[in-house]
Amino acid sequence: MTGTLLVQAQDIVKRRLCGNSLPVQLFSNLQSAETDIYNLLKRTVEYAESNSLLIIGPKSCGKSTLIKKVVSRVKKNENATKNLLVVNLNGYMQTDDRIALDEITRQLQLENTIGDKVFGSFAETLSFLLQALRTGSNESQPILFLLEEFDLFAQHKNQTLLYNLFDIAQAGLTPLAVIGVTCRIDVMELLEKRVKSRFSHRQIFICNTWTFKEYVGAFKDCLQIKVEEKKKKAKWKIFLAKWNKNIDMLSEDLTVLEILEKQFLISQGLSGLQKLLMYPVWLLSNQHPLITPADIEESAKSLFADSKANILHGVSVLELCLIISMNHLMIIHDNQPFNFHMVYNEFLKFSQKKSHILHNYSKAVVLKAFEHLIELELLKTRDHSGIGISKIQKEYQPMVLLVENSQLLEAIGKYPGCPTDVKQWAQSSIV
User: Fold this and answer.
1) Residues 6 or more apart whose Cβ sits within 8 Å of residue 398
2) pLDDT digits (tens, 9 = 90+) for 274-327
3) What confidence tens digit (pLDDT) does each residue in 313-366 have?
4) How far apart are the C-alpha atoms of 253 and 294, rounded to whole Å?
5) What DSSP string describes 49-101?
6) Nearest-CA neighbor of 270 among 317, 321, 217?
7) Burial environment of residue 392 by CB neighbours within 10 A (0 to 12, 13 to 18, 19 or more)
């Protein structure tokens, strides 16, 4: 029986961490914005009033989470005579207006309605889709168009999608709410004059001003489960009491608090916290029914892992020596660009004088290792001359190293079987 209850608890928390349901609390400073957005959507649903709105704020400040909460509230409104349809579009995925139109058709489930019909323009197609949602009377289903990464839609040719959505909303013939979400504060400057003239110019600016105490509260909200979320059976109540008590203990554990503080300093957004908690929740089983500090610590190790340091663990000794050579050149020349010949000469000085391991590498082999480091994106080209990188021989192209001293020393410390003289060379500032 306990196994079944654990599966139910896991399912609730997993859906919450995947963004399919919301934690109990939102950012405390978003209450005013929540009220404004709710009233706007409420008028669209109850009074068939069309509106447009831009929500602007930095990454991970709660913009999308806020909208999800408002939409959930609107759908539960007893005065709403019709259900609100939500069309989610993302500028990273719907890269042109044709793809966006296909996605609108799919989400509104109107593929069969369109069939083999041929339309003369984008506006005609969109108008037909909205007309198809009308009931037997002149009433239409209220629709919310949510445009994530709104600024990327402004890069579409002629901004056709934005123009038609704002035009329909301004005309008021169909109950339509268009909400754009972006982190660009200059987004209005990207809009064409004809698009800007049809936009309502409603803008809400939000930011995340969470304190660490509130962040710990969000940690608890993400994991704790209210009794109301399942039938109030005695065994379920007992299980939840034990589950929620364990979460309270986790929120006071010094190891967990240290990890949460590190994540809080990296990103105060809810998405980072959700990623941190996903792995411990997936680990739960009949043999391991409660989340432990060790689970969160293991999750933090993988989440905070330095990707470049991990790449360095897999390079060859020759490639590691080339990176050390580049690091020395960056120190000697005050972070000025270098080229392959400079790196090769630095490498030769070490291999001929101090190492008996690296004598047998030809220049062609060293160049191949150098090119592999470029493929791994551990260094990149930099051109200040205006000539153009493509016109310079690859051995003379100016390069910069993308590896920090700390990352290099950490990689050498963990590198299996790294020669002693290579370690000493890396630790010396100038050879």
Assistant:
1) 337, 338, 339, 381, 382, 383, 384, 385, 392
2) 889 999 999 998 899 999 999 999 988 888 777 777 777 778 888 888 888 888
3) 778 888 888 888 888 888 888 888 888 888 888 888 887 776 555 567 788 888
4) 11
5) --EEEEEE--TTSSHHHHHHHHHHHHHT-TT-SSPPEEEEEETTT--SHHHHH
6) 217
7) middle
Residues with Cβ within 8 Å of 338's Cβ and at least 6 positions away in sequence, in order, are: 326, 329, 330, 398, 399, 400
Long-range contacts of the stretch 285-290 (C-beta < 8 A, 24+): 285/6, 286/2, 286/3, 286/6, 289/2, 289/6, 290/242, 290/243, 290/246
Query: How far apart, in Å, are the Cα atoms of 193 and each of 163, 183, 199?
Result: 10, 21, 10
Amino acid, single-letter form, for residue 99: I
Query: Which residues touch 230 (CB under 8 Å, ≥6 apart)?
Result: 8, 12, 236
Read off the pLDDT of residues 57-68 as tens digits, 9 standing for 90 and up: 888 777 888 888
The neighbouring-strand residues paired with 248 are none
